[in-house]
Write a structure and sequence with these properties.
146 residues, alpha+beta, hypothetical protein PF0899 fold, six-stranded mixed sheet, three-stranded antiparallel sheet, 3 helices, elongated
């Protein structure tokens, strides 16, 4: 079950943003290719958050559909059953979206906190690094109030 590892990474980002303050909600976008079971991720987050400032926090999950781009013709489309471009038939596909786990915002008692560039609409979310939670502190800049 990779949901626990994802939950721990999400929690690490939320606690970093909270800087010791209570966390109410965490908005997260999860790509369909992650094959996450939402209830399992919710439970894992609750378990990971016990005895932290995020112990009472809830996750708001939004699924990002998988989108592939054909390297041959450039057409972007959802997953095809045969994993070939529906337009030209080429098997040279690259993932455009659907494999991400993105923390869009963290709600504290004082309001929402967003990463730089985020306007509340999710314009610049925080992507969890492959070796989260340790590496996320190196890749992310300081959050700001929106």
């Amino acid at each position: 079950m990779h949901e626990m590892a994802l939950a721990e990474g999400i929690l690490a980002v939320a606690l970093d943003v909270a800087e010791g303050r209570s966390v109410r909600r965490v908005r997260v976008r999860v790509g369909a290719l992650q094959r996450v079971v939402p209830d399992s991720l919710q439970l894992c987050f609750q378990l990971a958050a016990e005895e932290t400032p995020a112990a009472q926090a809830t996750l708001e999950l939004a699924e990002v559909p998988a989108l592939l781009r054909c390297r041959h013709c450039g057409v972007e489309d959802g997953l095809a059953p045969a994993l070939a471009c529906r337009h030209c038939g080429a098997a040279e596909l690259e993932v455009v979206s659907g494999d991400e786990v993105l923390v869009d915002g963290v709600e504290l008692d004082s309001g929402w906190r967003w990463r730089p560039g985020v306007d509340g609409a999710g314009a610049a979310p925080v992507e969890l690094p492959a070796n989260h939670p340790a590496a996320h502190a190196q890749q992310e800049s300081e959050p700001r109030d929106s």
